[in-house]
Structures are given as C-alpha cells and as structure tokens.
Design goal:
heterodimer, A: about 210 residues, mainly alpha, about 80% helix, globular, B: about 300 residues, alpha+beta, eight-stranded mixed β-sheet, five-stranded mixed β-sheet, 13 strands, about 15% helix
Chain lengths: ~210, ~300
C-alpha cells in the first residue's frame, strides 16, 4: 500500500482521474449530453466538484494519520488545486454564461444575494491558497505561518456548504451530506488538537527526571 | 366576461361516439381481441389526441422541443431533480381518475375524468411557461377552459376562491418523502383568475395524452403565473370564501406569494426575476410582466400593489 501511495504512476492516475468530470462535460457539450438546460447543468456540476475536491483535500490529513500513510501528503496540494480549478470553472460559468460579463449586474448580484455572497467569499478565500501553494511560498512564509494561512480552507469549504444549502429550494439532502462530511473532518481535527495539547501539557506537568 | 359557446356545426366532445360503442365497433368488425385491449388503453400516455381546435390565444413562438418539455420537469412527488419525474413518474396511474368537487358549489361530489372531457371541446393552447427558477418554455398544451368545469360545478355567491389539490399517494409516489415540501401539493386561484379564458385544464401536450411527469391526467395551466401555480394531477377542487393555503407559500412564506404573477420587477429574495433562459437558447431574454399576457390579465389586478401581493 505504501509503495502504491508513493508511486509516481498513482499520482499521475489521480491527476487524470481528477480531469474526468471536466472531460465528461466537454464530451457532453459536443454530444447533446448536458440535458435541456446545459448551462444550469455545467454550473451545478462544476460547483459540486469544487466542493468535492475541497472535502477530498481535507480528507488527506486524517487519512494519513488513521491509515499510517504519511505519503498521502503528496496528493494534498494537487487535490486542493483541483478544487480551485473547478471553482474557477464554476465562477466563470456564472460570470460568462449566466451574466454575460454584465459587471454592474454581477457586483449587485454578489452584494444582494446572500447565497452568491457566501459562494463568492468561499471562492476568494481559495485564491491566496492557490497562489501560495508552491514550495517557494512555504519557505518564504515559514511553515507555521503558511499552515495558519492554509487553514482558510476550513472557512472556504464551510462557505461552499452554506452556498449550496441556501441555494436549494427544498431538498436539502445533498448540502446536508456535504455539511456532515465537513463536520466529521473538522471534529477529527479538534480531537487531534485536544489530544496533542493534553499530551504536551502532561509532559510539562510530569516531574522532570533527576 | 365573454363566454364562448360552441356554434352550430362545431363538434363538441359530447358528440364523440362513446368509447364503449367505439370499442364495440371493433368487435363488430370481428377484430382480434388484442386490438380491443390496445384501444382500451388508448388514454395511456403517448396516445394521440385528435379533434382539438386551434386557439386564438396561442403564441406563434418556437415550440420547446418535446424531449425538453417531457424531460425537464419539476414534480417533487417523483424526485427533486429535473430529470427524475421523467424517470420515476411511470408509477402514477392516471386512469381511472376522479376529481372531487367540494365547498361552496351546487354540484358537489366525484366527477369522472371522462365527464370532465365532455364539458367543453378540446383546444390546443400554445403558451409560454415561466418557471420561478428563471427558465421558460413554449408548450403546446391541449385542454379545456377551466371555466367550463366551474360553470358545471356552479359555485354559490359565497365562493371567492378555488383551491386545488394534487394526488398524494406514497405507493404511487415512493419518492415523495424526499420532496422537502408539505404534501399533498395544494394551490389556489381567485375565482376571477380561475374563470379567465386563458386558464385551462390541460389533458395533453404535443397532440398526445399528457405524460405522467407533466401532471397526468389533468393539470392546471395559468400562463401568466409562475409554473408552480399550474398544479398537476388534480384530485380535488374546492370552492371557498377564504384565500386557500398554497404549498410553496407554506414552505417558504417570504419567497412564494399566493398570486405569484410573473413579474420582472419583483425579485425572488434569492435570485433576480428580470431575465429568464428559454430552454434551448443560449442567451437570456428579458422576462415580461404577466409573462407577456398583460393585455388579457392586467385588469384583474388593477389597483393592487404587485410588490405587496407578489
């Protein structure tokens, strides 16, 4: 398993697999496969995949610890960047095919509609993370500060879930499912953090060996 | 109000040979029993309707393709996805069908679908349909004016509103538990809206018996209101003096009003209603007040603040 996770080929395969949703939409666009309202379909799909990749990115750390596969870290940046990639497609679909670059209208829409405001906020929060995703930026910021900055992903994902929840008319099953997954992933982090704290404070309180 | 009566020489639904005799003609001809069976199911979805008249109320806009009209639907009792009603509404049994007339009217009680079909001659009405979700279609409905049924039921002077109810049967609608809205689905109109010549009871589209996902066997079509007002698969019609509760208004009071007239100047709290995407078109088009039927219906609302009575 460890070998599989560390293999260059596995990473290439994950990269290609991450492009399948896009390929499927492009294929559908040329083969009448996007249904009667193609733009609505593409908007929904790109939004869905943004949220899925954000959650996948957040799965990496718990999975590393629970499965004792530290090498899974190799996939985290890639998954995070795919979240950003689908987020860009989602946002582009909106400003292009829904609003046709009517900027005053877009600004008004973002300011006036809470579900768009929160979705846009989630998208903006991804921006610094995508920009500072390189090794050079980790060095420049320093590991601690870089890590702190990249905790913005929690907020971004939460914004995505709220965006989805506020958007549906009545059937909230899917946004609640995404919300529940995010909840589990965050609770894991709280537990890990609390355990670590208990651990280190015990270490401080125990009498020093003479 | 102008009430159109069938003139001399015009075929009425009641002139049609009763189905029993029609079927017997086959037996008379000694046709195979199989053919009789097939005809007995002639009112199943997909069967052709004939003898319907064209209407002056029809638009000459380009029709939305049949596949979109019957494959992109909101019918939450069969799933909340747009493609789900087409996939899952086959469990609905549209025949036999009875509509219960209740409340402040002279002729109360159950009314057979076949009786309703005989109340007025069938007409084709090509109407624009504007969904509250900011998409629209052009649908060639076939049906009768709702006023024909109301005249038959003869509401009393007390009646000011008409309430409608959709079938709610969890056996026929196993997915309805996920609808997220209170069921049975209920809708309502003011009596003058219901009597308006544009308001129809549709029993078909595209020359065919109404497919299940479009609200078989009979549904309301009120073309100047958002689509959700045009309630599907009606089992109950009640005349009342009070404004009846309506499903989306119960589910979300601030977002869906009783009137729900198409109005580009009154936004849905979560999205703009200024534009719409006509299914099959790339660019959005401007939404028109009363969905373009203002000439005929605006007088119904004269003096009313449409922002308040949204």
């Amino acid at each position: 398993m460890k070998k599989f996770v560390s293999s260059r080929w596995t990473k290439a395969a994950v990269f290609l697999a991450s492009l399948v949703p896009l390929a499927y939409m492009v294929w559908g666009a040329f083969n009448d496969g996007l249904g009667p309202n193609p733009i609505e379909y593409v908007t929904r799909e790109t939004g869905d995949w943004t949220l899925r990749f954000l959650l996948l990115t957040l799965v990496v750390t718990p999975a590393r610890k629970l499965l004792s596969l530290p090498d899974l870290i190799r996939y985290r940046r890639m998954l995070g960047l795919f979240a950003f990639f689908y987020g860009v497609l989602h946002f582009t679909t909106y400003i292009w095919f829904d609003r046709f670059f009517d900027w005053p209208d877009i600004v008004k829409d973002i300011a006036k509609r809470p579900f768009i405001t929160v979705g846009f906020a989630g998208f903006l929060l991804m921006l610094p993370l995508a920009l500072t995703s390189t090794a050079g930026w980790i060095r420049r910021l320093g590991g601690k500060r870089w890590q702190l900055l990249h905790r913005l992903i929690y907020l971004s994902t939460l914004a995505g879930v709220i965006h989805y929840y506020w958007l549906v008319k009545s059937d909230v099953r899917m946004p609640l499912l995404y919300g529940a997954i995010l909840g589990v992933l965050l609770v894991f982090r709280v537990f890990a953090w609390a355990r670590q704290r208990a651990h280190s404070s015990r270490a401080v309180m125990s009498p020093a060996p003479r | 109000m102008i009430i159109r009566r069938a003139g001399a020489g015009e075929l009425r639904w009641s002139d049609v040979t009763p189905k029993r005799d029609y079927l017997n003609r086959r037996r008379f001809l000694g046709a195979a029993a199989g053919a009789v069976l097939a005809l007995g199911r002639a009112e199943a979805a997909g069967a052709k309707l004939s003898g319907y008249a064209k209407s002056k109320f029809s638009t000459d806009e380009k029709l939305t393709p049949y596949d979109a009209v019957t494959g992109y639907n909101n019918y939450y009792e069969f799933g909340t996805g747009k493609d789900e009603p087409a996939k899952y509404a086959n469990t609905l049994k549209p025949q036999p069908w009875t509509v219960k007339i209740e409340g402040d009217a002279a002729k109360l009680g159950p009314l057979d679908f076949d009786r309703i079909m005989k109340l007025a001659p069938l007409e084709e009405r090509i109407y624009r349909l504007r969904c509250v979700e900011a998409w629209s279609m052009v649908v060639p409905w076939i049906g009768i004016p709702l006023s024909a049924l109301i005249q038959y039921a003869a509401p009393t002077a007390k009646a000011k509103f008409v309430a409608f109810e959709t079938l709610y049967d969890t056996k026929q609608m196993p997915r309805s538990q996920w609808a997220g809205i209170p069921l049975p689905y209920v809708e309502g109109l003011r009596l003058d809206e219901a009597m308006h010549p544009l308001t129809i009871l549709a029993v078909g589209l595209y020359g065919e018996v109404l497919p299940n996902q479009n609200g078989a066997p009979l549904r309301l079509v009120v073309p100047w209101k958002y689509g959700f007002k045009s309630i599907k698969s009606i089992v109950k019609i009640r005349f009342t003096d009070k404004q009846p509760p309506t499903t989306w208004n119960i589910a979300n009071r601030g977002e869906y009003g009783f009137y729900s007239n198409v109005n580009p100047n009154v936004d849905h709290p979560r999205w703009s209603q200024a534009k719409e995407r006509r299914i099959g078109e790339f660019f959005k088009r401007d939404t028109v007040l009363f969905n373009g039927y203002g000439d005929q219906v605006a007088s119904l609302y004269s003096g009313m603040d449409l922002k308040k009575y949204y």
